[in-house]
Amino acid sequence: MVIEIVAPTSLPLGVAQIETDAGRRTCLVGFTLQHPPVHLLAQAHPGLFVTGASEKRARASAKKFRQHVEIAEGIEAEIELAIPSQMGLSSEPMLGLAMARAMAGINELPLEDTVALAKGLGLGPQDALALWGFDQGGFLVVDTEADEGEVPPIIRRHSIIHEDRDAWGFVLVLPRVPQKTPDSLESECLSHLLEAAPHLSDTSGQIVADQLWPALENDDFPEFAQALTRLHKMNGQALDSTGYPQTLTSEAQGILNVMQEHGSLACGQSLVGLGLYAMVKGSSDAIELRQKLREHWGYHAGTTRTTITDNDGARHVFRDEDLANVILPD
């Protein structure tokens, strides 16, 4: 028996101080995206045998899960696709959760209990946005504060579903990673972002409550993009205040200029990695912007992706096959 798992990407867009029934909370705000995904195939194995993309990280996650959860079977996994690391797309927690779900499925554990999977991996409150994106997708506002051993809850969630011509699309630019960039870049940047939260303007929560959320509910893309731009700038100012400024290379700034000149209403570099994003409305505008970026950037400096929101979270299917013989659909 083989289990096949596809998991989405999680893009943090910033933190905000949100008023809740429990008082003011530091919350992460972000999108769950369909691409670039995690895609893996796995079956039972006496040990831990992993091949394919990001195999070292996948093996480490499997080892950690096996150490913390009482299971009989190990895993043989083939990683067909992995989210590029260091881009600010939650690559490590998404790959870890996919491996944990595979191991749970192989061992007949509740594989859809994402909170239990996260605890088995030792994920912390800072990983809540990725955890709930894996669990159910959508545009998310999640708490980042919880008692030890607990998982912060979702504060608000919204699905974004349109026909292609009206889709709220993302164009992602994923550059090549410079040498000597630490493997821990994403987790370090996320920690810095959360450390900066107390330095946010008092209006950060108002932007989410009074602009972002009404724009989502009213399908007002320009208003949403304007509010997102304000929130991104506010987070940048908070990072500056704590000594962790987000510096842009001349190449990154040139890419952002192209994004702004060709249809993007909101764009920026990920606050927790090297990737850059632009938001556009409609598939035709996304395709046009992607082409302009390729003309500016070339085909060998990295990759450019277009994607839309994922509103379902991770998916899995069992196949009555052996991993060596499994045939994937075209």
User: In the CATH scheme, what's the topology name?
Assistant: Ribosomal Protein S5, domain 2
Distance between the termini: 21 Å
Number of strands: 11
Identify the overall geometry.
globular
The Cα radius of gyration reads 19 Å
Count of all domains: 1
- What structural class do helix, strand and pairing data support? alpha+beta
Average of the residue pLDDT scores: 92
Helicity level, as a percent range? 25-40%
**What is the count of helical runs?**
9
CATH architecture: 2-Layer Sandwich
Q: Element order, helices and strands?
A: EEEHEHHHEEEHHHHEEHEE
Unreliable stretches (pLDDT < 50, length at least 5) are: none
What profile does the largest beta sheet have? Answer: 7 strands, mixed
CATH class: Alpha Beta
Q: Which strand-content bin applies to the residues?
A: 25-35%
